Amino acid sequence: MYPPPQQKRRRSMAPFIVAVVFAGALIVGLRLLFGGASGDGKAVGGGTADVRACGGDGITLNIAASSEKAELLRTMAKDYNGREVDGRCVDVVVTSKASGGAMQALARGWDERQDGPKPDVWTPASTGWITLLRQRVEGGDQASPVSAENPTVATSPLVIAMPKPMAQALGWPSKEIGWSDILDLANDPKGWARYDHPEWGRFRLGKTNPNFSTSGLNATVGAYFAATGLSGDLTERDVAAAKTRDFVKGVERSIVHYGDTTLTFLSNLQHADDSGTAMSYISAVTVEEKSVWDYNQGNPTGDPKTLGDHAKPKVPLVAIYPKEGTLLSDHPYAVLSWADAAKQAAAADFLKYLQAPERQQVFEKYAFRSFDGKPGNLITTANGLDPKQPATTLSAPAPRVLDRILGSWAELRKPANVLMVMDVSGSMGADVAGTGKTKLDLAKQAAINALPQFGPNDRVGLWLFSLKQDGDKDYRELVPLGTGNQSRLKNRINGLIPSGGTGLYDTALASYEHVTRHQSDDAINAVVFLTDGKNEDNNSISLDNLLPELRKEAGQETVRMFTIAYGADADLDVLRRISQTTDAAAYDSRKPGSIDEVFTAVISNF
Predict the structure, then answer these.
(1) Which range, of 166-175, 553-562, 565-574, averages the lowest pLDDT?
(2) pLDDT band at 41 (very low <50, low <70, confident <90, very high)
(3) What is the dihedral angle through the alpha carbons of 516, 521, 523, 525, rounded to the nearest 10 degrees?
(4) Which residue of 12, 200, 465, 587 is most buried, as measured by CB atoms within 10 A?
(5) Helices 399-412 and 214-228: crossing angle, nearest 10°?
(6) DSSP 328-359
(7) Span between the terminal Cα atoms of the chain, in Å
(8) What is the Cα 174 distance to its own chain's centre?
(9) What's the Cα-to-Cα distance from 1 to each of 73, 329, 346, rounded to whole Å?
(10) What does pTM read for this prediction?
(11) What pLDDT score was predicted for residue 7?
């Protein structure tokens, strides 16, 4: 039995105050790389549990958890902290870290300056990430830090979430629907007119980047299984087959854009639902089953603290369990090899605590299934879910096959047509404390580091802006939109120097119109817009006049403006409104030292 709170060791105020200050700094700062945050100002940087119970002689167990369950684990840790294991007091500190970001950090060797507190336990959303980690370190300088046995703390299957009227048009709930139906509809030039709903336009799929997001990884793997008709034993030859590649490429061509988290899509869908345009934003999005419940409660973040803050959507989502089969997010609990004996004992005790019936009921309260896969009371048809599904659960591919899938996806994904627009106003020359560099130095390096994410088929261009850069224009083209120009982009970015004020509104409109004129029907057309300030051009268009110019009629294709609020003086609210108007996402990088992580998160949309 675990002791009730009043029996726990008396809490020292010093660590409590330190934790509160630390948590406050993180809230002002950034969400951990690709972790959960508001899609209306997505930050990169994470929070930790803010309640400690032990003194200096206690054990601190650091846990890196995927974003969709991090807040629940923090709540459970708060009640657990102060328990003694082998005579020593234990504090569990939970940090939100997206599964793909944590995998990459572990594969290269965890760097606390860049990656946050080094974890003793890693609990990604899926065992697939542990498989990829083993593949990445195999034959390298380090051994895998993860053992072969990693118990599960909760489960949630991948589903294709669709607005209920669209799913009903396809025959839901009586008809089985799968990836093959999605491909047929995506390839049909009639779009939804095929089902007597021309007003819904083309079929539009939302899917996260499989290099960073579990739902994106599982959806990509699921598409490869669907293409082959297999439910297990997928081989590298299967992945490389022309028929498989054509199928996957067809699915990817229906993508509106990729993303670092499903929250981008769900938050935008909520915004569209508020304005009565939910049916024209997106036709389907691949998410965990529990995210369908979260969205239908008006809480797309899944954060228990915000449940009830927003009304339920007018158009709810329903879960389609692909008839070809689907993968489970099995939320493994991996104790890392460098954890000493005391931390291993604490980790084992906390795992036992999480798997106890009382905590499993907490998971079920937020629409997770139990660690052994049993659906709870929320998995009902009334909630758009099906406790009898999935009928077929797919087996995760072998490490080399999974790595090959990601390599193949990079070749088959929808190409991008992206204009990078960078603020070079005088304030960008300000020094960033503790770095020995200016804000512009850090932004330039972040942009250069992100360039390798673009592929050979992506068209990328570069503008700079401040005030009167080209006659009366506040902006200047440095590199036109094109392919194979990374060397030129790097040289031009390196040459940026700060000067002048901030001509934000005119530049935003001009960059949007430029990409609109040069958009491709078979690409993700977007602007990446970074600024550290507010509009300072008194002769420019106003914000009230700008936003209508960025707004397309419902159902029309749009150029999406992904904005980055950089530095403490950036106007996040304005940038959020610009991004929302174009069905994109705003990113909060008001802590300049983390711009490298933010830029990587933004580019994951392409």
Answers:
(1) 553-562
(2) low
(3) 20
(4) 587
(5) 90
(6) EE--B-EE-TT--HHHHHHHHHHHHHHHSHHH
(7) 49
(8) 32
(9) 19, 29, 15
(10) 0.83
(11) 39
Q: Please list the helix, strand and coil fractions of the chain in percent, rounded to the nearest 5, in that order.
A: 40, 20, 40
Which band of pLDDT confidence, cut at 50, 70 and 90, is reported for residue 42?
Answer: low
Per DSSP, what are the bridge partners of residue 561?
527
Task: Tell me the pairing of strands 416-423 and 524-531.
Answer: parallel
With contact defined as beta carbons under 8 Å apart, do 125 and 96 qualify? Answer: no
pLDDT beyond 50 at 16: no
Beta strands, E only, 369-482: 416-423, 431-432, 437-438, 459-470, 473-482
What are the structural domains, with CATH classification, of the chain? 5-151+332-367 (3.40.190.10), 157-329+386-409 (3.40.190.10), 415-603 (3.40.50.410)
Q: How far apart are CA 399 and CA 387, in angstroms?
A: 30
Q: State yes or no: pLDDT of 84 exceeds 80.
A: yes
DSSP β-bridge partners for residue 94: 63
Please return the burial class of 397, using the count of CB atoms within 10 Å of its CB with bins 0-12, 13-18 and 19+.
Answer: buried
Structure tokens at 59: 């054990």
The 3-state DSSP class for residue 540 equals: coil
Mean pLDDT, rounded, for 177-198: 92
Average pLDDT, the chain: 88
- Structure tokens, 402: 């999974």
Q: Which residue in 103, 213, 43 sits closest to 591, CA to CA?
A: 43
Per-residue DSSP letter, 435 = T
Which pLDDT band holds residue 445 (cuts at 50, 70, 90)?
very high
Return the exposure string of 414-446: e unless at least 16 CB atoms fall within 10 Å of the residue's CB, then b: bbbbbbbbbbbbebbebebeeeeebbbbbbbbb
Q: How far apart are CA 581 and CA 577, in angstroms?
A: 6
